[in-house]
Amino acid sequence: MKRALVIALLLAVAVPLLIAVADLPPHGSPDAPAHTHVAPRYLERGAEEAGAENIVTAVILNYRGLDTLGEVTVIFTAMAAVLAVLVGARAVTALDTPASALPVSMIVRFIVRVLAPFIVLFSIYVVLNGHVTPGGGFQGGTIAGALVIALTLIMSDEQAARLLPRRPERVLQAAAPLAFIMTGVTGLLLTGDFLGYPVGHESALVATLMLTFVEIGIGVGGAMVIATIFRTMGAGR
Amino acid sequence: MIAALWHNIDYAACVVLFCIGLYTVITKHNLIKKFMGLNIMETAVFAFIVATGVVEGGNAPIMGPGVEPPFINPLPQALILTGIVVAVSTTALALGLVIRIWHQCGTIEADELREAE
């Protein structure tokens, strides 16, 4: 009975979706509506207008910068919410087992140690080259955050606590929204629009610098947020 | 109908993935498995929207010397980058709540939680 209900529900979702999907313009056709409105303009003018050769970055940080400002606020808020839910709320239950350090295999430890510097280098490369190659602040920040997680796994708690800078921690966690708002205000002063970037050939360098600054802010903030969330969740193990 | 679906097999695959996620959400009782299902559904939607941006034989939308049109549509990619980050944020918050439930109730099985009420 229950299984029949599940199958009925799945069919009720899948069949209309499949019919709708069959009616869409063929996959990859260049004259589909998705490609004929605003995208051609981004492709034609993006590189000169936005100061980034990578049009995806241009769209994210320049044309739709406010959208991305909201997005970095969302990840910061998520981290704040995780901290609010978990920190200081460790109810004593019978299930709290004494913290036992899991023995980590020597192979894992060695490989993480060897790869760590290269991962750092790669994440910096991805952050700084976001406007000319695939990549950007979020991607590079995630790589760095993943490295912090990998290092936390092979280290003892005291060592791992020293991985993240202690004192300006809150500032670094909020780095992404802060860098974004600072750039927005700079744009306000330079062009009269919040998040406006100077347009033109002679000021292309300024626009690129502003983009890079936002990328670095997003990278640092993203890595800190991911590492903090992981640390908070693992704190009670 | 079948021929049209064959042209859009990428989109159809996204629909199948979406249904797998939905199946996980409605049949599993473990809260973490439910959130995995939710993540699969999110992934299906992301894959679908990114797939709408594909242009046959298109290049990556990165300008520079020696790149020729046609380009892949950059807009879906940019929107989905935002979507992925928001999905990660909601997943983090959801897992935080699951940990809290585990500490408070000692179980994360939805049916056991309902009994415990």
Question: How would you describe what is shown here?
Answer:
The complex is a heterodimer of chains A (237) and B (117). Chain A is built from 10 helices and no strands. Chain A has 237 residues and is mainly alpha-helical. Chain A has a domain of 165 residues. In chain A, helix 2 packs across helix 3, helix 5 runs antiparallel to helix 6 and helix 9 packs antiparallel against helix 10. Chain A starts with a helix and ends with a helix. Chain B has 117 residues and is an all-alpha fold. The termini of chain B are far apart. The model of chain B has no long low-confidence stretch (mean pLDDT 89).
State the gist of this model.
By secondary structure, chain A is mainly α.
Approximate shape of chain A: globular
Kindly state the mean pLDDT of chain B as a whole number?
89
Output the number of helix runs of chain A: 10
Count of individual beta strands of chain A = 0
Strand content of chain A: under 5%
Largest sheet of chain A: none
What ranges of chain B have pLDDT less than 50 throughout 5 or more consecutive residues? Answer: none
Number of strands of chain B: 0
Record keyword descriptors for this entry.
heterodimer; A: mainly alpha; B: 117 residues; 74% helix
Write the layout of secondary structure elements.
The complex is a heterodimer of chains A (237) and B (117).
Chain A: H1 2-23, H2 39-50, H3 55-63, H4 65-86, H5 106-128, H6 137-154, H7 157-161, H8 169-173, H9 175-191, H10 204-234
Helix pairs in contact in A: 2-3, 3-4, 4-9, 4-10, 5-6, 6-10, 9-10
Chain B: H1 2-7, H2 9-27, H3 31-52, H4 74-105, H5 110-116
